[in-house]
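Quick start: what a row looks like.
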Amino acid sequence: MVEVDLYVAVAVGAIILLLYHYASKKYEYFLAKPIPVLKPTFLLGSTGPMMFRRRDVSSHVKLLYDAFEDYKIVGFYDLMKPIYMMRDPEVIKQITVKDFDYFMDHTPTMTNSKPDDEVGGESLFGNSLFALRGQKWRDMRATLSPAFTGSKMRHMFDLVADCAKSMGEFFKSEAAAGKVLEYEMKDTFSRFGNDVIATVAFGIKVDSLRDRENEFFMKGKAMLNFQSLFVLVKFLLLRAFPALAQKIGVDFVDSSLTDYFKRMIVDNMKQRDAHGIFRNDMIQMLMEVRKGSLRHQKDEQDTKDAGFATVEESNVGKSTINRVWTENELISQCFLFFLAGFDTVSTCMTFLTYELMLNPDVQQRLYDEVIETEESLNGKPLTYEVLQKMEYMDMVVSEALRKWPPALISDRFCVKNYMYDDGNGLRFPIEKGQTMWIPTIAIHNDPKYYENPEKFDPERFSEENRSKIDAAAYLPFGAGPRNCIGSRLALMEVKVIVYNLLKDFSIEASEKTQIPLKMAKNFFALQAEKGVWLEFKPRKQ
């Protein structure tokens, strides 16, 4: 018995030594690189403070960014994975634009997608535009790009505007009933975003403010419940051991939830085919893709018609392809629009309304522009073109995205060996399989690029001041050909809801409002510790 115990002890000791040796070798990666690196904590790298909820994600990214102020590119470890952090806008432009072919993909940690796979399995997330890699991503980007042009947004505008009007009518009816309009902003705007995505991407109508527990909203909320222990464990497994996660069939999103959304889209398509129904939404566009009839129009100008933050489509998105997509691959794109629309717009609106409350002079000037625009319509409904002409609206939204970018970081994955050269003597190889981080939240709040960054100042984006902004240091929708395809849709949603809110209500602090905000200590998203509570006060007509 003693011998058995001894063997067990020796075996356990050997395993521990092997793990220690394995981890130690991982932490030797940057020793051969001529750049500074943050000293890692064993097994945790630099991720420990977020994992154990001692620091919120935005503060953590800023701390990593500020560790070596005089360097354009630095290193750190995410758990045991070496990460390059790009601190300089020119380096970001070089990696994401000039040398894009070397850094085409996102890091394949949360998907079973493989480069150039003809069939990407059943995973909706794995088949989405975000997760696709290589030529398959190029083909899907070119396939979907015509669906997100300015002309297509004009066609979708009425669907989005109807959701915003419905939201305004709900608040007015609540006020008329004598209720105090005190709401938590993230929840409120998640409901709006949910209703927009339901109508625009899934072809159904839901009302998540009046029917607060409707199935579509509750399924989406469950899917994005990043606070649950089960989701946290899956996330860590996918990040730390992606190969193992793939082998045992771990997917980022629960299969019962993906089956629900898949069924909904398939049924909708069948109904439209059977009854000849046409609707200006994403499902209609996917049906056009299936028929091969969705193409860029030759006379269509890809301009910044949606405002300063709009990203340009690259030649990748404008290329012509004749690839045949499976039903699952097309459905996956609606699924991605849901994930992005549910969270991104609601995050932007949450912090934008908070800033309007803190800065009543900004709110008043924006309200004046709303009323001036409303009067110019002479009783006619708001249009996409009129909304885009609102200069101060665009300045306010651009500044909100500067100070509070919903995507705190973005990444690029090295797909073939690359020689980094800064042009000033610093030269070293970045090997295939390495990850590059773009610390958007830190760059947007760096006084080197934005004077007094803590101040919410829309004047940064005025016509006379825009030229002073380094375009490579303003990245609310990413950079290069792999930027966010839906920037026009997101900006349209934000502007139309701000318009409808301010027209009838002022945004003010309530008893639950936390000033200053304290951020929640999680490593998933930009989120306030106690939520963002504000009050909508009806304006005197």
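That is the whole record. The chain has a mean pLDDT of 87. The beta strands are 73-78, 81-86, 182-184, 410-413, 418-421, 427-430, 435-438, 505-509, 533-538.
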